[in-house]
Amino acid sequence: MKQVLILNITRMGDLVQMGALLNRLHEEWPGVAVDLVVDRRFAPVASLLMGLREVIALDFHALINESRALVKDVVALYEDVAGWAKPLVERRYDRVINLTFSKPSALLAGFMGAPDIRGVQSAWDGGLVIENPWMAYFSDFHQFRRLNRFNLVDIYALGGSRPGTFCPLRLSLSREDHTWAREALTGVTGWIAVQAGASDSMKAWRPHLFGLALAKVSKQWRGGMLFIGGREEEATIAEVVQVYREAGGKSPVKNFAGRTTLNQLAGLLAECRLLLTNDTGPMHIGVAVGTSVIDLSVGHVDFQETGPYGSGHWVVQPELDCAPCGFDQVCGHHACKDRISPDLVADLMCHMLDIGSCPSQGFGARLYESGVDEDGLGTFRLKVGTESPITAWYAAFWRHYWYEAHTGSRSRVSLPEGPPPDASEVNVQLRALRPLLELACKRADEIARLARRASVDIPQLKRLQQEQRADQERLLCMGMTAEALAPLAAAFGRQVRNDNLIGLDRLARHQAAAYHTWLRRLVEVERCLIGTSSSDRSITPGHRRKLTVVGSERHAA
């Protein structure tokens, strides 16, 4: 019997988003035993997941705090964790999947001694290395996130297992949970759940706008409004309800924020017709119990990464050039929150409740409908509003490229039609970058050749390495400037640092391989975008091109 250990010790939503991975593992290895390591705070969520043999909980939060506060020395902390992990090591897992990109989880992943590790593990020098191309992509795409079209659910499944059939997210609720929820929701027929708060205020739509949207819906909806969240969101909910009442809201209101277990919360959501929410853990719970979701995607949230997975949901995103903002940015205006009209949200809610038509105008926002694409992956299709033509074209291109590069299989999703909108500029950029990258490959090969010698010419080697560092900085600066180049540059930047090697010659060969991978990929992209022959250059909008990915980087599954 095959055995797999998954490490996922960060957030509640990340656990729910493992659903496709668990299904895919059982599809890959029928009868597989899958165990899950979680932080103790999230063990109740893990207990609702399907396809697990055992949930193994540890108070990682306290462990990290003890480490930072120097309550125990490093050796004592290591001995504590090693003692706790010893029974897991003795199980001899066939695969370890680390979905938490942190040093503690990396150390634990390597400690298991499994022959197949996917995700982050510790290098020999204490650094981090990433195994598996999909897990590497997960660490890369934050540098070009507007071009990413892979949901985290699918990245988990592809990286931890392989391509397979689509499976919606699911949670297993007991009869008691359903019964408790039905008894709690009495008085009216039909409820709308509302999550007005969020763990980060940057991710939350304005409370008074929630109130206005709900008030408008209540004029047509005869059901009730159910508020969920944590105790810390009481003030936010109170503001929403006050605005709701002042604007004429008449539907009954119930506030369960901070008053339920996670099982009870899941039961409540399963009884609701609709969930209106910011990007939160409960949003994923709602999806997994079959409730239709409206996701308000504001701040640094990108619904393409973490939006509601599968069919039957909608996303509202501000129509701004800066949306979504980067994780490392500090916003001084939060204008994205004001771009989403409460009337638009109310109309969309009525449409999902079958008491109104779908909005035809966004009035400063975009509407996306969730779905499943031809490769069996989650997707979002723009229904109202406009996107940058350049961003939309390259997002579709890179979705196709990385799927084929990392799976070695043909994508059923078509490449975008015709040349890119900025074809002439891209041609100039590619022609400038390629010869410089070819020279960098030659220099990297020369360094590798010198490093293999029994007697290394240290002064010459140092000179070449200094030139290489200058080249690398220049190439990365050029490569990160455009949608046609940035994903490859980001992948190179990570790959060149992703080493777990001892020995000057091995390190030199690793760096040379990274340069050659970048050049190979650049040639592939150039061939597809611009063409390298007269027939290639005659691409028209109606001409269907096929992308050939040679020497694809993929993990043996």
Task: Provide a descriptive summary of the structure in words.
This protein is an alpha/beta fold. The chain has helices spanning 12-16, 19-28, 43-46, 60-69, 74-90, 103-111, 133-140, 152-160, 175-184, 207-218, 234-246, 262-271, 281-288, 303-306, 335-339, 342-352, 389-407, 423-452, 458-479, 486-497, 504-529, and strands at residues 3-7, 33-39, 54-58, 95-98, 116-122, 128-131, 191-195, 224-227, 253-255, 274-278, 292-296, 314-318, 365-372, 378-384. An 8-stranded mixed sheet has the order 9-8-7-10-11-12-13-14, with helices on both faces. The protein has a 6-stranded mixed sheet with strand order 3-2-1-4-5-6. α9 (175-184) crosses α12 (262-271) and α10 (207-218) crosses α16. The longest helix is centred in the last third of the chain and has 30 residues, at 423-452. It is globular and about 85 Å long. The two termini are 16 Å apart.
Helix and strand layout, with pairings?
Elements: E1 3-7, H1 12-16, H2 19-28, E2 33-39, H3 43-46, E3 54-58, H4 60-69, H5 74-90, E4 95-98, H6 103-111, E5 116-122, E6 128-131, H7 133-140, H8 152-160, H9 175-184, E7 191-195, H10 207-218, E8 224-227, H11 234-246, E9 253-255, H12 262-271, E10 274-278, H13 281-288, E11 292-296, H14 303-306, E12 314-318, H15 335-339, H16 342-352, E13 365-372, E14 378-384, H17 389-407, H18 423-452, H19 458-479, H20 486-497, H21 504-529
